[in-house]
Amino acid sequence: MAEGRSIVELRDSITGETLPFANIVSVENKKRRYVTDEHGRVIIPEFLRHEPLESSYVGYNNKPFIIGESDTVLIVLLHPTEHDLQEVFVKPKKQKYSKKNNPAVDFVNKLRQETKKYNPEKEPFYSYDKYEKTLLAINNFNGQFDSGFMSKKVKFLENYVDTSNYTGSRLLDLSLKEKYSTRIISQNPKADKEIIQAYRSDGIDEIFNQENIRILLEDVIKEIDVYDGSINILQNRFVSPLASIGPDFYKYYLTDTVFVGNEECIELSFVPHNAQSMGFNGKIYVPVSDTTMFVKKLTMRTPHDINLNFLRNLYINQSFVKDSLGNRQKTYDDVVVEMRVLPGTPEFYGRKTTAYDNFSYQPREDFKDFYHKLGDELSIRDSIDATAQFWDLKRMVPLTPAEARMGNIMIEARKNKVLYWGEKIIRILESGYVGTWKPSKFDIGPINSLISYSSSEGVRFRLGGMTTAALNPHLFLKGHVAYATKTHDFRYSGTIEYSFTRKKRYAYEWPRHGFYASYSYDQDLIGESYNFTNSYNFVLSLARKANNLYTNRRMAQGGYVLELRNNFSVEAGLKYTQQIATPNIEFKKVTGQVIPSYKQTLFNISLRWAKGEKFIQGRSHRHAINMDPWVLRLTHQYGPKGFLGSAYTTNITEFSVEKRFWFSAFGYLDVLAKAGKVWSAVYFPSLLWPNANLSYTIQPESYSLLDPMEFANDAYASIDMTYFGNGILFNHLPLIKKLKIREVITFKGLMGTLSDRNNPKFNSELLEFPPDAHAMKMRSMPYMEIGAGIDNILSVLRVDYVWRLSYRNTPGVDHSGLRVSLHFTL
C-alpha cells in the first residue's frame, strides 16, 4: 500500500461477503467519488481520513463513516435494504440530445479505435486460468420455516438461505456449479481451446442431465466481450456501447471523474435511445492519464422496459488491468440475472462470477498435447472427480456458508416423501422415459407416443424402451412394438449398437463412434415426414386433412458412425428395404403389370460439419441450443440394380446448408438452403418428394400448405427463411410495445423438375403414380409460401398466418391458414 493512504473494504453485514463496485463519496465534496474493486476494496487518500464519507451500494442502506487512522484496512459493513430495488440511472438534466459536436461521442469513437490495438489474443501464444461460479436461487425469498408450507418438513431449507452481496436481496440457494479451466490460444498451430480441469455441481437440478444444464447455462450466460459490436448473452444480441453503430443507438454523456482504486477515471455514461431495444444503461471508466484509452472498469444493466421475456434485471460488471505489454487483461466478470417465468410465481436469481489469473504469453507446457487436438472444448479425464483440496486451492472467489452446504440439499430433500416422489415425476416429464431399476438398466418410453391417432391407422398404441449404460456401457438395445386399430397391424423395430467409447448413459451420447444394426416394419408416409420430433407424437394427431398415401415398409440397415470433437461426422452403411403395396398405393407399372412389393439395397454415406455447434442431448434426438454455427450436410446413396434383389439402380445426392444471421438490435434471420438430384431411373417412392406438414403446428423443413406427393421431383433446390424482428416495429408502437410481442416473417420456396427418365409417361419400366396422389411435374414457376406472424404472445406462443403464393388452382389444396407453435425464448 502507498504511504499516506488507507484501504476501505465494504462487506455485507449479514454474510460478510465483499461488495464489488460499490460507491464511496465525500459528504463535503461530492466530486470526490471512489469505486471499490472486484474484491470490495478501494484506496482512499490520506487527506480524506478525517472527512465524513458515505458508502452506497444497490440494494443496501447507505452508511456514513470516517477513516480515523491511515495505513489500516477499515471494514465497513452495509445492511441490506428491506424494499424492492428500483432502477436508478444518473444522467444530466433533461435536454435535447445531439450526437453532433458531442465530446462524449468523440470520446467513444476514439475509445473504440484505440482499444482494438491492445487485444492479447493477437499474440503468438496466450493463455490464462479461469474460475467460474454459477449460483441459481429463488430471489427475494421471504419464506418462514415455522408455519404453513414452510413447516418442519422443509425446515432444512433454512440452511440454504443466503443474501446477495450484489443486490442485497434475500436468496434461497437451489444450485451451485463451479468450473476451473484453462484457455490456450496460439497462432501457429492455430488453436483456441478451453481445457476443463475440474467441474462440480450441487443442488436440486441434479435430477436433470448435468452436462445439458452446463451447456445450456454457458450458452445463456456467455462470457461477453464489450469490444465486439454485438454482445451475445441470454441467446440474444445486444448492441455494445463500443459498437460502430453505437452513436446511432446510444446517447453518451461524460458525467464525472471518479477514483477507481487509486486511479482517477473519466466516467462515460450511456443509455439507448429506445428503452425497449436490445441495449444497456451503464458506465465505462477510463483512466484520465492513460493515452491508450484503456478501459479499467465497466458496469451496465438492461433498461426496465426492454423487450425480453421473463427478465427483470440483467447486471454486468467487468474489471480490467493493463499488463507489461500494454494489453488489456480481464480479471473479473460478474453477471447477475433476475427473472420471473409467470406472474405470481417465485422470482429466480442467477449469478455467474468469473475470475481470471495466471496470464501468460508462453506456450503452456502442461497442456502442450492439447494444441493439436480436435475440438474447441476439451476435458481432462476425471475432471468431475476433483477433490475438495483441489477446489480449496483453485477457487478464486470464496463460497458463502449457504453455498458451501449445497452438497447436502438433495440428501435432505429426499427425506420428505412429497419431494421424493415429486423428483421422480419431474424426471419422467423431463426425459420422456420411465426408469426401472436403480440405477435404471432399461427405460420405458417415450411416453409422448404411447397413444396417437392418424387417418391412415386410426388409434395407435405403442410401447418401447431402451437399455442404458448401467446394463452395459458399450452395448445398447432399443426397440418398440405398436398396434394400429384401423389396419389391425402390428408395427415394430429393434436396434443394436456397439460403441467403442464408454458411454455415461445412452448410446446416442455425443460423440458417437461405433457400429449399429436395426430392423423395422412400419408405415412409410410418402411425402410426409417429421424430422425433428417423433412421427407418432400425440400433438401431431390433429391434422388439417387426411393422408392415406402410405406403403408398408420393412427395413434392415447396418452402419458405422464416427463423430469427431470438431463437430465433423461421417456415417456410412448398407440399407435393405422392402416396399409393400397398400390399398391406397398400388405398385402398377405402365405396362399394366401389378407387383405386390419390391426390394432395394443400397450403400449410403453422410458427411456433416457444424463447427462450434452446441446442443441439448436427448436419448434419441439432439436439440440445437442455437442456430448460430454453419451446418453443412452432404449425403449420397447408391445401389446397383440386381444387387441383393434390387429392382432398380439408386443414385441420389443431397446437400444442405443452414445458418442464423444476426442483425444486432434488428433481429435475426434463419436460413436453410437445400438441393438434391436423382441420377438414375427409380420407382416413385425414391423420388425427392417435398415434405408436407399436415398438422396445425409450425414444423421445420416442411411446407405448411403443400399436400403429400403433390410435386414429383428428381431434382430440386429449396430455400427456407424465417425473420424474427425482436420488436423492431412493435417496440415503437404506443400501448402495443407493453405487450412485448415480436414480428415473424417467413418465406419458403421450392424449384423442382422431373426428367423424362423418371416420368412414367416416358419410361414404361417405372411404376405409375398413385391416382389418389394427383402428383404432377412442376412448371417453370416455383412453389412458394409466405407467412406473417406474431411471436412471444404471453411469452411462449407463436401464431403465423400462411399464404400459398403459387399453384393455387390445384384442386383441393389449402390456400392459407393459421399455424401455431410453442416458442420459448428470452
Structural overview:
The chain is mainly beta. It is 7% helix and 41% strand. The protein contains seven helices and 40 strands. The strands form five sheets. The chain has a 17-stranded antiparallel sheet that branches. It has a 16-stranded mixed sheet that branches. The radius of gyration is 31 Å and the shape is elongated.
List the helices and strands and how they pair.
Blueprint lengths: L4 E8 L10 E4 L6 E3 L5 E5 L7 E4 L6 E3 L7 E6 L24 H13 L9 E15 L21 E3 L6 E17 L4 E13 L6 H11 L9 E4 L2 E4 L6 H4 E11 L2 E10 L8 E7 L9 E5 L9 E12 L5 E12 L7 E14 L16 E3 L8 H7 L6 H4 L4 H5 L3 H15 L10 E3 L6 E4 L3 E10 L7 E10 L4 E11 L13 E13 L24 E14 L4 E13 L16 E13 L5 E3 L4 E3 L6 E9 L10 E13 L5 E11 L36 E10 L17 E12 L29 E11 L3 E8 L11 E7 L4
Parallel strand pairs: 1-7, 3-14, 11-21
Antiparallel strand pairs: 1-4, 2-3, 2-5, 5-6, 8-10, 8-20, 9-10, 10-11, 12-13, 14-15, 15-16, 16-17, 17-18, 18-19, 19-20, 22-24, 23-24, 24-25, 25-26, 26-27, 27-28, 28-29, 29-30, 30-33, 31-32, 33-34, 34-35, 35-36, 36-37, 37-38, 38-39, 39-40
